[in-house]
Amino acid sequence: MSTTTHVTVLGTIFLLLAVSCTSATAFSIFLDDPCTATDYPALCRGTIGAQKNVNAATDVAIRELMKRTRQARDIAKKEMKVLDGGVSTCLSNFNSAFDNLDKALKNIKEGDRFSLNINLSAALTDYDTCSETMKGARGDNVVYKSAGVLYKMADNCLALATLVV
């Protein structure tokens, strides 16, 4: 082997080691605070507290999202009498999102990351569809606001799910 080949091989090995060390460092940040992987870290921290285990943090985040979805569903049922239009769509989507979140909890237990991402993505779409449907509603629209918060929480759950092992 020539000297040039040795330098190239050693340079490549050094580069790979440097990248793997950087990735390990970046990953350790997620282990210290999984919420750094989310788009809404303050909301995430308020949801999962000091939980550092990513599987447990994801589970806690999904359970809280399910609780809030139940509350939004109850609000939507009451608002159907007052608001016209998309409230029934939101009610249906909240039910669908709840079912998808329930499946996502099972996916965590089974270690099925692929299905976990699919079910969380489906819930995210449900909340987004509700928001889009209610966007044009007049007045102080509590259903629209609820769907917005639920969307952010679902987005955080999806980000946490990428860390699940």
Describe the structure.
The protein is mostly helical and 165 residues long. It has a single domain, classed as Up-down Bundle (Butyryl-CoA Dehydrogenase, subunit A, domain 3). The chain has 6 helices and no strands. The chain has helices at residues 3-32, 41-48, 54-79, 87-110, 113-134, 142-161. α3 (54-79) runs antiparallel to α6 and α4 (87-110) packs antiparallel against α5 (113-134). The protein is elongated. Mean pLDDT is 83; it is low at 9-30.
Q: How many discrete structural domains?
A: 1
The CATH class turns out to be Mainly Alpha
Rounded radius of gyration (Å)? 21 Å
CATH superfamily: Invertase/pectin methylesterase inhibitor family protein
User: How is the CATH topology named?
Assistant: Butyryl-CoA Dehydrogenase, subunit A, domain 3
List segments where confidence is low: pLDDT < 50 over at least 5 consecutive residues: 9-30
CATH architecture: Up-down Bundle
Overall pLDDT metric:
83
Keywords: Signal
Domain Pectinesterase inhibitor: 26-160
Organism: Eruca vesicaria subsp. sativa
Protein name: Pectinesterase inhibitor domain-containing protein
